[in-house]
Amino acid sequence: MRAGVLGLAVLFGVASAAQAASPGQSPWSGQTNSKVRLVSGTVHEDGSPVLYAGVQLRMEPGWKTYWRNPGDSGVPPSFDWSGSKNVKSAEVFYPVPHRFADANGTSIGYHDEVVFPVRITPEQADQPVELSLTFDYGLCKELCIPNSVELTAILPADLGKGDARLIQQAIARVPKPAGPETLPRLEAVAADLDGDAPQLVVDALFAPAPRTRITHHERGVPRAGPQGAGAAGGRDAALFRRLFDAGRSRGREG
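The chain above was modelled as a monomer; its predicted structure follows.
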């Protein structure tokens, strides 16, 4: 009996050691259909070492979570670092998401696994950083389940590479800022000249913006066909410009 108890203790110790977090990591926090942990490492940017954390989320097959703009349904993730110590700022980045179409419309997010890179700026670079994160996220399949986890990790001042490779892979998938010559980009223009209120249909791609804004230009613009030729009749057409949170949109204005 004593040998059996000893054997169980040894097995338990081996299992616990296998689950123990490395320096700069948090243990996995398991949910029913997902689990999350913190990772960290030093990444070189323009030749200088920069401290990064990563929020690593793994999901069971068929489940998904959402981007910062979830689309027609879903909720964006929320990162609360207010309980952290020696942290001046924590800037979260979002890798390129996927689009999911279903009966409820189009949602934008991630499946299987995603790592959100987080650039950490310590208040004192020569002191350890204590990360404390409250991470809220939606998890959906046929039904959507709200999740909230508490994660903590201590990042030594001499952390070294740590999980830098994993974090760099995630950083490589973060969209780069578009230059002014790239966006906005006009993709298609069509004129609908039927009826009493002619319509100009514009398909355009805009950079992310904090809000939607529609600007109506002065009315009285001569109606024009697809080739730019003037049209008789003197009816007005209103041109407009829209700035969107993200992605493509098709707009109509009479």
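The longest helix spans residues 2-19.
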